[in-house]
Amino acid sequence: MFDFIKNKFSSANKDIEIDEQEKTQPQGLFGRLRKGLAKTSAKFQYLTQIFTRGKLIDAKLYTELEEILISADVGSKTTTKLLQQLQKVAQSQKITDAYALRALFKNELLALLAPTTNKPLNLNQAKAPTVVLMVGINGAGKTTTIGKLAKKLTNKGHTVMLAAADTFRAAACEQLIAWGERNFIPVVAQATGADAASVAFDALSSATAKQYDFLIIDTAGRLHTQDNLMQELVKIVRVLKKIDASCPHEVMLVLDGSIGQNSIKQAQKFKEKVAVSGITITKLDGTAKGGIIFALADELQLPIKYIGVGENLEDLQEFSAEQFVNSLLDMDIKDESNIGSQ
User: For a Cys-Cys bond, which of 83, 106, 124, 222 suits 229, CB 3.0-4.6 Å?
Assistant: First the structure.
């Protein structure tokens, strides 16, 4: 009923844009993170003008700090929460120098992110495959993220199968199949327009029978306002549970970091339809302002599993609050040994 369909699309593979640069750069993963966040952290670099040695802490300082945070997409709600806590701690510790406030500010950012960081993939405890359902809107980088995640897992020695359940766009299926061919990962696919839930069901049946470690399911990119497509997600989940009641073990929402506060509304709507268990934020190497991560952590309390800071395989990194904050604030970190580990 299903097969690893690739012949139909092989002639189109040359047109699919998949990153070909996977060589690890000499600066290490933290260096790659800092380099990738160079544009993202631009707004935060204004903080160095605020946290100046010898500068007194006053109402004007907090106003300037508020303006920077809001302009960096932190959002008014989260910004207010951050500044109120920062001011409270500064007063309790009798800190009057702006330079000393910098360390306190970093600690408050880390505290905000603490519930969402260092959360690995939710693994199936049984012998059946761990099923990762990838969701998000068109253009967020979902299919590319799947390819990179699959490669990372195979590099760790796991067996991975992909399912092309985005049956609305032939290009999405082509792209996923190209990732599979390139990395010797099987892809379960059907013709354009096929029932997405059927593809997911067939893929899980195959992955279970062949004892794969992971099954990653691509789904059609959809706006949160498209109720028919949102209902399709619900159907996919319902069909998967017919095989394994614990499925999916991870529902990964992929968000475009450059869309700012709109990503919060997207995430809220997806959460209403499916049990989103984690977030991957892409395109933080571009025009994204970075602050949206703090807003997402504060308002959604969902684990941020991965961030994308470039085109290379290594630029999809497991999210670490300390590494992220140090990069934004241009602060040093001594130990890179655990960066990108799982």
Answer: 222
b/e per residue 68-105 (b: at least 16 CB within 10 A): bbbebbbbeebbebbbeebbebbeeeebeebeebbebb
Q: Cα torsion for 181, 138, 207, 212, to the nearest 10°? A: 70
CA atoms within 13 A on the CB side of 105: 24
Q: Domain count for the chain, please give it.
A: 1
Please state whether beta strands 214-219 and 160-165 pair in parallel, antiparallel, or not at all (unpaired).
parallel
**199 torsion bin: left (phi>0), alpha (psi -120 to 50), beta (else):** alpha
Q: Which domain holds residue 49?
A: 1-16+26-342
Domain containing 253 — which CATH number? 3.40.50.300
One digit per residue, pLDDT tens: the chain, 342 residues? Answer: 344 444 333 433 434 443 444 444 435 666 777 776 776 677 777 887 888 888 889 999 999 999 999 988 899 999 999 999 999 999 999 998 999 998 999 999 999 999 888 788 888 878 889 999 999 988 888 999 999 999 999 999 999 999 999 888 778 889 899 999 988 999 999 988 899 999 999 999 999 999 999 999 999 876 655 677 788 899 999 999 999 999 999 999 999 988 888 889 888 889 888 999 999 999 888 766 788 899 999 999 899 999 988 888 788 989 999 988 888 887 654 433 333 333
